[in-house]
Amino acid sequence: MKYGNSIAVRLINISAYTSTALTTVFTSILLYAIATRTPEEMRHYRVLLLNYTIASLILSLLFSLCEPVPSSSLREVNRPANDSGISYVIYGPIVYFIEPFYNQILSAILVGVLLYTIMAIPLSFVFRYFAVRSKRYMEWFASLKVLFPIFMLNALIGSIAALFMCVGNMPKDEDDEDTTKISSWSHYYTYYGDNPNIPLFGNLIHLNSNVYYTILIFGICLFISYATVITFSMLTFKAITSLRSISSKQSLDAQRHFLVLLIFQSMLPAIFLVIPITVVVITIACGMLSTTINGTAIGLMFYETVFSVLIDLFGIVPYRKMLFSKFTSIATLKERTAWSSVINH
């Protein structure tokens, strides 16, 4: 079957696979650096760094598997009753080898992991403030008896958001059938937009009013997270300034460097998540819904995890030195090999 949006789907696939490959490679290097190159003074920060890094890797893998693109069912020819008007299309490889019902579950889990990752960002700012203010408070906050309940709370909130996504799914008529009797699941990844004569590729997921609870949870968590980021950034800068007369310049510069690093990292969701979603909302609101435009916008979201890992890898000095030393040793080895071959000849 020839699909009307095949080019856009290929672009989405390429973007997802490329970003996931890059994230996997850079995350593997970062995890090695965390395990082997984290200095003693940073050992308390290691748990927070691992938490955010692993969550970002899982998020990237789910993105490449699902490749969800927000859409609107307002103009669809087959729009079901009680539909909220909010829908999304799954373009990822899971439409080929996972049963249709589980497609939607995985995409809902993706939403939960995304929310968990966003809520993990403010923890580093709180830690950085305690690191400047008091070593005792820093060690208390970085202990597992404090962090583990926080991680569990974030996971619970993410699970609730994912649950509302699952409950909000409006099953297709075929979902009631015995899938073992269906020779092909092609009808699950073929749908029609506003033109009944042009088939489109993707597993279209309609959502009922329960999706608004997911959006509400996201909005509240985003507000709390970034309010925490802004508040503790200001408090930390103020604390660094107040310690200027009693602490060494090198120590204060290191604290300021870490804080600026965290600020850049916290801006990534706003750049790579908020802007693409805004583009999608505007195109839908203005009646310019396009798989190519929306797919390109969402394709940018996949690279949020890539840049997040790179900021840690190149921004944290011990890890950056490890990378440069590896590159230098490789270059030196190649140079020696070249000279030895010249001499031997």
From TrEMBL:
The keyword Transmembrane applies. InterPro entries: 7TM_GPCR_serpentine_rcpt_Str. It holds the Pfam family 7TM_GPCR_Str. The chain crosses the membrane at residues 12-35, 47-65, 105-130, 142-165, 211-237, 258-285, 297-317. Keywords: Membrane, Transmembrane, Transmembrane helix. It comes from the Eukaryota. Gene3D superfamilies: Rhodopsin 7-helix transmembrane proteins. This is Seven TM Receptor. It comes from Ascaris lumbricoides. The lineage of its organism: Eukaryota, Metazoa, Ecdysozoa, Nematoda, Chromadorea.
